[in-house]
Amino acid sequence: MSNIRVLDESVAAKIAAGEVIERPAGVLKELLENAVDAGATHINIDIDGAGKTLIRVNDNGAGMDKEDLELSVARHSTSKIKNFEDLDSLNTFGFRGEALYSVAAVSKLAISSCVKGGGGNKITVEGGKLISVSPAPGIAGTTVEMRDIFYNTPARLKFLKSDAYERALLLKTVEESALANLNVSYTVRTDGKQVYNLIEPDVLKRAEQILGKEVAGTMFEIKDMAYGFHAFLTPLNKLTSVRDLQFCFINKRPLSSKTLQQAVYKAYQGRPREKHPAFIIYMTMPPSDFDVNIHPQKREVKFLRENAVFSFIMNTVGRKLSSSAVPEELLQTPPPAVLTISGGKTESSYALKEPPEIFSGGPLKQDYGVKDFEEPASYDVPSEITDRNFEKPKSSVPQDKPVWWQGPYRFLGAVHKTFLVFETESGLTLLDQHAARERVLYEKYMREIDKRDLGVQPLMFPVQADMPASNVENLMLWAPWLKTAGFEISQFSARTVLVSTVPNIFRFKEDNLREFIISLGAIAGDPLKSSDTLKKKTVAMLACKKSIKAKEDISAAEAEALMSDLAACEDGMHCPHGRPVMVSISALELAKKLGR
Ligand SMILES: Nc1ncnc2c1ncn2[C@@H]1O[C@H](COP(=O)(O)OP(=O)(O)OP(=O)(O)O)[C@@H](O)[C@H]1O
Ligand SMILES: [Mg+2]
Questions:
Q1: Which CATH class is domain 455-504+508-546?
Q2: What is the mean pLDDT of residues 68-83?
């Protein structure tokens, strides 16, 4: 007996559907594409139960007559391709004629449709089987109503994530579609509540509603004939701390391309670390110049001439960036300072600018427990570094010294108000002041959360943070936990949250606090298996990064205290992001370098 069996049609349909439809957002994407393809200028979207209960898409497009309506749910039924040659010249979104068929296979589907001047019809389909055909109101356009997704494939249902997560993906799908099709207006309701009403055809106005004023308000525009390139990007001094405000549309279709993204980043060379451009890029090109069918969900794009596209984008964006006025301090690395050392204090010969990442904080003094330490000791700069004339500082020496400890450390001065220079018995140690403080702060914060010993400071005016509705959904999932970590947030509108408390340990400038919350919104979007530890680490790391770093001169006592605080840390060698905090050079190495 043969082992090979031909699968019956309904089983095959369910398998095929899995390729196209992984989750509610996949359904919505297909339905929106169809509505846009049908020439709709207005689309109403209703989402109930995070799309698991209902997704309804109503459009005012061309509609279908009775015959087309019945055909639309059949496999390989498409009005968009008639023969093989069409494949190359196809300008509409889809060509597989598989979307509605796939949705129908795994849900309960009702479609009503009506062409202009014709009569309306409605079909209902369950698990791929046509159940009924009946007359419907004669309103031109189409309404597709999908209920109970995966009701007949419970295994797939189990793979779906929390409602908030699925809803965030659904909203992201709408956000992309709305930025791709500016001539189409969109209204979106989730569980009956309006989330978006996008009627502005102007790209920046629409972007303001989706990305927030903060980001969209600063974007500049580039237009170029080649590839129909039309782009909006944030300038170098207004980069965002999240990576997901990046949209790319080719022939109005939301796609992602590694080549394109890398080219943009290359143009932003010299940007501060961990800062990202937000961008909306539109391109048009003949369908034969790129391939989007390499992925069942039609997302990644490969260009026929990847190199040409790469250099074009890098050069076009790069030129515009270098011609636009960017504050000098963002582009220049500070010139070397001439140090004069006296009594452990450092004075540079001119006011130095700190690197962009760390100078965002004002000249706010961080209460680093200075009062607990001895007066700064006064030292002479040794004429020669030898064991003999190395004076031992009086600063505290930790009880359990970590492996890296080479103390006692004698503070000599600071370079660029950033690097602290210490003399040790074996040579020289340079400490990254800000990274070290970040580490100490980070561990202190983690301990305070653990001990439920966190001081919290209410803000006089709650800080407002705008972000895409999809990110708000994700962030609000964290709200109860964030409260235990000292940040109280509440949802103000579909796209805005308010922060009303911060932990005492941190000092934020308003902008930095806002950035911190926005970053969290974006990170929460990751399918994060959020154990408490992971949440704590993420928040602590981000908060440390965003909190204000002191910029003032540091005294010898403070510098040495910082060193011993670091020694008390679990990992004093690295900042919370894993970068090294210090480098040591032995006297021997120095002697070798200087040919002694
Ligand atoms: N909202 C709509 N308005 C008018 N016609 C529609 C609509 N949705 C679907 N159709 C018709 O049904 C056909 C089948 O749709 P379906 O999404 O399954 O395939 P497709 O869009 O042609 O290709 P793809 O599988 O790539 O999406 C379409 O070609 C179109 O003719
Ligand atoms: Mg389609």
A1: alpha beta
A2: 73
